Amino acid sequence: MKRLLFITVIILLPTLIYSQSWVESFYSPADSKTALNFYEIQKEFNDYWKDYDLKGGYYYVNGEKRKAVGWKQFKRWEWYWETRI
Is 65 helix (H, G, I), strand (E, B) or coil? Predict the structure, then answer.
């Protein structure tokens, strides 16, 4: 029984912890009517983080340094696709 529960948790955990709020308005690749292009995605990301005064993927809240979750991954994606458009 414990084994089955463990396997179920391992399978479902990635779907439960996905939480990048700026990505919520993105589309399914199969849905070309609502598909966003590179510049629209870039604008959504920049609009989301503009109030945080990011420096190298970190920002400060009440003097406490916090990591901007997803920032580095987005910047890698952006760097890769920016020259290919």
Answer: strand
| Whole-structure pTM value | 0.59
> Which of 53, 45, 38 has its CA nearest to residue 24?
45
CA distance 14 to 81: 26
**pLDDT, tens only, 30-79:** 556 667 788 988 998 889 888 888 888 899 989 899 999 889 999 999 99
Dist. CA 37–CA 29, nearest whole Å: 11
d(CA 42, CA 69): 16
CA distances from 2 to 13, 14, 17, 31 (A): 16, 19, 22, 40
